[in-house]
Amino acid sequence: MLTSMTGMASMSGASGPYDWSMELRGVNNKGLDIRTRVPEWLVGFDQSTRKVISSQVARGSLQFSLKISHVAEQGQRQIDPDKLDHILTNAVVLAEHAAQKGLLVAPLTLSDVAAQNGFIDVEADTAAQRQVMKVLTAGLPELIAQFQASRKAEGAALHSILADNLIQMEELITQASATLKGRAESNEYNFRAAVARLKQDIDPVRLAQEMAILTVKSDITEEIDRLQAHIAAAQGLLASDVPSGRKFDFLMQEFNREANTLCSKSGSKALTAIGLEIKVLIDQMREQVQNVE
């Protein structure tokens, strides 16, 4: 079953004085790109998160975010004397420069001081921080499992669409194969009619040679055979459990190459119409394949 590169999972909980929530999102990408947004005081957690994710995800642009809030009482906050002195000194200097310019500065308020980081928390509870780190580390595998489940569900939808597309492709190729019957006779008739319109006598041997060349140039048997081989390869990828997005993308290029050659060799409105339908179908498949891991 296919796996999509699009998915999302989230978890939340609490540990001691901390509330936390983490989220993992993914969209399509040529390779694996993991970006993390983690509080700085959780030293090393971003690296371990990247390592765990990369061990289970092969492709995609992933965004991991972790938010932690301290739910302890606000009374645990205190003034930092050094920072407060620095803020007040700057305020005095600002007022003096403003007065020299003839400007009046409003008196400094407590909220102004707080906005300038005039207060800090009491010394962090390192034991509580270590505990929340353990809780987050233990919950990470479950988050990734939920993320992978969402990608699998999206991949199942992609699998169904691509399987239907391949069935349609087989039907169109069968129609193209049916045009091969009587194709040589039709080409010979059209060629002889064109020669007749020239009102010139042509050596029968030369005519036979030209007909042989025309037949070889317009033969689409190889293109049909290769298209059928590509369908078999695509069906094999659908049945595979390993990431196959890159192989699918390459296969779409090969499909398109054969469809272009078939159209250039068609020589008939019916075959050209079939070839164009095949190309439209290939474009539809290519859009879906872009999301396959």
Written description of the protein model:
This protein is an alpha+beta fold. It is built from 9 helices and 6 strands; from the N terminus they run βββαββααβαααααα. The strands form 2 sheets. Strands 1-2-4-3 form a 4-stranded mixed β-sheet, with helices on one face. A two-stranded antiparallel sheet has the order 5-6. Strand 3, helix 1 (45-54) and strand 4 form a beta-alpha-beta unit. It is elongated and about 110 Å long. The relative contact order is 0.13. The mean pLDDT is 84.
C-alpha Rg (nearest Å): 35 Å
Largest sheet: 4 strands, mixed
Q: How many DSSP H or I helices?
A: 9
- The residue-averaged pLDDT reads 84
Shape: elongated
| Helix percentage range | 55-70%
- Tell me the span between the first and last alpha carbons: 11 Å
Name the strands of the widest sheet in spatial order.
1-2-4-3
List how many beta strands DSSP finds.
Answer: 6
N-to-C order of helices and strands: EEEHEEHHEHHHHHH
Unreliable segments (pLDDT under 50, ≥5 consecutive)?
none
Strand content: 5-15%
The helix-and-strand class reads alpha+beta
Topology:
Layout: E1 7-15, E2 18-27, E3 32-37, H1 45-54, E4 60-70, E5 77-79, H2 81-100, H3 110-115, E6 119-121, H4 126-178, H5 183-198, H6 204-218, H7 221-239, H8 245-265, H9 269-289
Parallel strand pairs: 3-4
Antiparallel strand pairs: 1-2, 2-4, 5-6
Helix pairs in contact: 1-4, 4-7, 4-9, 7-8, 8-9
Descriptive keywords:
two-stranded antiparallel ribbon; alpha+beta; 293 residues; four-stranded mixed beta sheet; 9 helices; single chain
